[in-house]
């Protein structure tokens, strides 16, 4: 599977815990077509976020 972190993985895990009242996140293994569709969605969302920050250039 693929795990993408823009920052330190420990920092990301801590932020998730804080957002969920100190509980550990639920993990799910994605494979095959589901993995590819999820990765595609992540990349599209990141690009959209970048475009918004740049003023839609």
Strand content: under 5%
Helix-strand sequence? HH
Radius of gyration using CA atoms only:
14 Å
Number of strands: 0
Main beta-sheet strand count, sense and barrel state? none
The number of distinct structural domains comes to: 1
Structural class: mainly alpha
User: What is the first-to-last residue Cα distance?
Assistant: 33 Å
Low-confidence stretches: none
Helices, by number, come to 2
Mean pLDDT, to the nearest integer, reads 85
Helix content: 55-70%
What general form does the structure show?
flat
Detailed description of the structure:
This protein has 57 residues and is mainly alpha-helical. It has one domain. Helix content is 58%, strand content 0%. The longest helix has 22 residues, at 32-53.
Properties at a glance:
flat; 0% strand; XRRM domain-containing protein; 2 helices; RNA binding; 57 residues; mainly alpha; single chain; 58% helix
Secondary structure elements and pairings:
Blueprint: H1 9-19, H2 32-53
Could you give a quick summary of the protein structure above?
With 57 residues, this protein is mainly alpha-helical. The protein has helices at residues 9-19, 32-53.
């Amino acid at each position: 599977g693929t795990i993408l972190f823009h920052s330190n993985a420990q920092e990301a895990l801590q932020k998730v815990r804080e957002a969920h009242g100190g509980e550990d996140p639920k993990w799910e293994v994605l494979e095959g077509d589901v993995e590819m569709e999820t990765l595609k969605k992540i990349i599209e969302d990141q690009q959209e976020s970048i475009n918004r920050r740049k003023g839609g250039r």
